[in-house]
Specification:
It contains 8 helices and 6 strands; from the N terminus they run αβααβααααβαβββ. By secondary structure, it is of the alpha+beta class.
Length: 247
Amino acid sequence: MTIGGLIRGCAAAAALFVAAAIQAQALSCSIPATLPRPVPDGPDAGEPKRVVPIGGYTLALGWSPEYCRTRLASARDRIQCGGGNRFGFTLHGLWPDGAGKTWPQYCAPAALLDEKVVRRNLCATPSPQLLQHEWAKHGTCMTPDPARYFATSTRLYRGIAYPDMAALSRKPQTTASFTRAFARANPGLRADMIRLNVNRKGWLEEVWLCLGADLAPRRCKATGEGAGANAPVKIWRGRIAGRARQG
């Protein structure tokens, strides 16, 4: 599929996600005048280059309060976790999935991202190095243009609405109850189109949305990835409160 086709599909998928006026934006996001430069990212023995046909996509959303819980003093994570910035869900990345059991990754050499591209996307993915990694591992399998890759992923991200995370954090949750709440916030999305990544102690780390080759939501494949349907899910609130924008 061409990148033009991806972006057209992206617009259609975003229309399915939008509910009310809640957008996936940071509660507060200040970009530093001087940014750390990313370092090159590429394949290695553990993460080899793999070029296979794309059969669909995963949109990965990280729950920032849990991520920052132990990283408040981390220099590497200062944009996301330090200072006055506040994030709810951030964009981990848009990952192409394979038609079979394997997926494409590191499909072509990845030059260092232009700082303009980094700055444009930091309030969605608040880490220059993570942006570099997502481009190298996933974006190069979709398009030769990093700006187009991030335009596609951030457009999908900004079309998503979120349930009241503060309210959900106050009562017991399972994967099933949380995915139902997430789906209710997004007409066109069903609970079986969502997978959750929780840590060993049951705290929510990421929400994974399953997308088809046209970038529209689809039922997740039975891959065994993510938490089971009856797994308990705990939500660390951090400084997130109320139904304020949970981006």
